[in-house]
Amino acid sequence: MCGIFGYSNIKENGLGLLRAMAQMQLHRGPDSEGFHIDDGVGIGIRRLSVIDLVTGDQPISNENKSVWVVCNGEIYNYQELTDELKQKGHQFYTHSDVECIVHLYEEYGIDCLKRLNGMFGLALFDARKKCLYIARDRLGIKPLYYAEVAGRFLFSSELKSILSTGFVSKELDWNAISRYLDSMYIPVPLSPFKQIKKLQPGNYLRIDSSHTITIEPYWKLSDKPIEAMPDSEAEAIERLTYLLKDANKLQIRADVPICVFLSGGIDSSAVTAFAAMASAIPLRTFHVYFPQATTKINERQYAAMVAKRYGTIHTEVEVCRDDFIRLMPKLIWHLEEPFADLASVPTYIISEMARKEATVCLNGSGGDELFAGYSHHRDDFLVPRRILSDLGKTGAGSTLRGLLGKPYNQSTWGKIFPLYTDGGTHHELDALKDAFGRDSLNSILAEDIDGYLQSNVLFLLDKIAMSVSLEGRVPLLDHRFVELAAHLPGAWKIKNGNKKYIFKKMLGPYLPTEILNHKKEGFGAPLGDWLDDKTAIILRRIIETGMLAKAQLLKTDKINFQEIQPWDLWKLACLEIWYRVIAEPLEPSHLTLDDFS
Fold first, then answer.
1. pLDDT tens-place string over residues 127-153
2. Among 269-283, 314-328, 392-406, 470-484, where is mean pLDDT lowest?
3. Beta strands in 319-398 (DSSP E)
4. 2-217, CATH topology level
């Protein structure tokens, strides 16, 4: 796990540029840094050492140093690939998971991406062809930003590194900001700045010797698995079980301590169970709870139940409203984009605690999107089509934003923000719907994967865990498991109103019935407790005295502060704080929400 960065078609001060980009990502890679420069192309990395602590520094090259790579993430099947490549005559000089990439490229060209089982944002330079590739893993677990300005190309794991070059304008993309207001995050491929984009998951970008840029997919969720789909529930359960066991076996590979985030829900409990069965030593598990909350179900007993069954070393971590007030400016700086999901607070607290004992954490992200665990997942197959058209690119986020009352709609946001834009249509979502045919539930789930999972859940995990130099792994998003689960019939995912039916049935032998049957709570913060009247006073002051209003980007006189829902008030305040700490910029590690009001 690391932070990567680089450029193409820049021939002056290349080393200084890479060092400046590296400086913005020290938290992602505290252990080492490395650079490679060749005729106007530069690639670099800040490394967090996880596999091959001694010889695994990057960039890494092939035998004759004609192919170079930097990689943020992990290649889980590197041992199998390394054995295969050695049999073909390739010579390895490290024990790193990353070295297999350059040798795979020699064998298969950029199609080597299809052979990788992992999470990654990578850059590969072919010196013979004077060609630079950047690529992102299939599900978007790892981030990758890029910008092309006046013939110069820049890329990075983080926005701040690209901004630090001075080549890119900080002009806001109001289409992206508007999508944040509609939900609570900015969907791929957008970023908050016009000149910076996110590479789509499952895609690679190529810059050839003439500086022509092409972007191509190497994987699509809509593509069915090569292997025939199961004919029965029993066959589906057998294959899902095998794949999840294998995914956990691969993902506990590391030369550093590993832990699991255990909420007590089905998904994290499943990961804990299968990881514990694959591990030769007891796992550490961490559970976050809210002792002062009145609006969340306490799941401590369920997490403790799973921890006891699998003999983990279990730690409970408290989170309270004061943590929200204390941490949010710092977290917004690390998130880099307007992002209103308050799950960032418990994620930071649990990551900070886990980092004292481990360098890698497993978590249960993806189960709800694969097997239908959210409130808008229904089995009547009539409502979903309407929901699907309403959700747009925001996925499950639009369901969540209505939890605290009726949210603002597009016409209201348009009155408050002069540059607000309507979301329009999303042709890529139409393609997803067509790919899953008449299975309306699977269409909704595919959209949630393509939207909410990638741009909210995984975005949050990476940014916050890496803020404390902790690598987050997601066994449920092993692409083989995803490919099978995504194409199972929707009728096996919700049966007689029982959500996640096939997944629960699969987990029956491994988890207590109390885990499988208790009401879903989720990992989010207690919004009703934190966004109370006392907080509303702080948020209102932040908005009314803010820089957005002074820049005439926000009309505070159009906001009815007596009627606005707490959720929308928080989104406005979050946008204002982001504007101050990122767009200006300001590093706020010592500041609280009160300091902005």
1. 999 999 999 999 999 999 999 999 999
2. 392-406
3. 360-362
4. Glutamine Phosphoribosylpyrophosphate, subunit 1, domain 1 (3.60.20)
What is the pLDDT at residue 51?
A: 73
Q: Which residues are catalytic?
A: 2
Please report the pLDDT score of residue 380 as a whole number: 52
Residues 485-497 have pLDDT tens digits of 999 999 999 999 9
> Model confidence at 383, in pLDDT bands (50, 70, 90)?
very low
Could you tell me which of 261, 279, 490, 217 has the C-alpha nearest to residue 358?
A: 261
The contacts of residue 17 (CB under 8 Å, 6+ apart) are: 7, 10, 42, 165
Cα–Cα distances (Å) from 549 to 329, 422, 447, 543, 588, in that order, read 19, 21, 35, 8, 21
Distances in Å between the Cα of 6 and the Cα atoms of 23, 155, 334 are 13, 5, 20
| Cβ atoms < 10 Å from Cβ of 380 | 10
108 to 100, 116, 186, 424: CA distances (angstroms): 12, 12, 35, 40
247, 478 Cβ separation under 8 angstroms? yes
- The total of other beta-carbon atoms located within 10 Å of residue 215's CB is 14
Q: Which amino acid is at 523?
A: F
Domain locations in the chain as residue ranges: 2-217, 233-527
Question: Which residues are bridge partners to 68 per DSSP?
Answer: 61, 125
> Is it the case that residue 425 has pLDDT exceeding 80?
no
- pLDDT over 60 (residue 384): no
- What is the pTM assigned to this prediction? 0.94
State the DSSP string of 97-109. Answer: SSHHHHHHHHHHG
Q: How many CB atoms lie within 10 A of CB 257?
A: 14
Least confident of 171-180, 294-303, 327-336, 387-396: 387-396
Q: What's the CATH number for 233-527?
A: 3.40.50.620
Which are the contacts of 451, defined by CB distance < 8 A and separation ≥ 6?
A: 187, 391, 393, 394, 395, 396, 397
Query: Torsion over CA of 374, 379, 383 and 388, rounded to 10 degrees?
Result: 50
Fold identical between 2-217 and 233-527? no
**CA geometry: angle at 116 spanning 113 and 120, to 5°?**
80
Amino acid at the residue 558? K
Query: H helices within 401-532, ranges in order?
Result: 410-416, 427-435, 440-448, 459-467, 479-487, 501-507, 513-517, 527-530
